[in-house]
Amino acid sequence: MEWITMNAHVQFDNSNLAVRAIIMTKQDESKEAKQTPMFTPEYWEKEVVPSLSRLSMRTVERARLVLVEGNGPTAAGRIAGASRADVHNAVLRVKKHLEEHMGMEEVTVWLPKDEAAKVRAMAEKYKGN
């Protein structure tokens, strides 16, 4: 749910009163921000999924909605019929598996632009569009 504030004018006893109203409304699903996918669909299917055999298919599919398709946990939960927390936990389980069994590590770092271009080029084969 998202809170929005609106100004409204109400007619009362022949005088205009300005009334400030707070209205609760559902957030429009089409406005939900997409995240940057971490893996291309091809890399996910060829390299990642085969190594996730110890995890349930439900966990793998929930994580895919976020890590490959770029949905946020709330939108992914809506798609999968799961809670946001269930999706978040699925992503954490997959990331833990990637670190422990595939020797991968998620890295976030600020670099000079020329160095960042080199790192982006290296990461291109792993990340989504």
From TrEMBL:
InterPro entries: Fimbrial_Adhesin_Reg, TrfB. Keywords: Transcription, Transcription regulation. It comes from Pseudomonas asuensis. This is TrfB transcriptional repressor protein domain-containing protein. It comes from the Bacteria. Residues 47-121 form the TrfB transcriptional repressor protein domain.
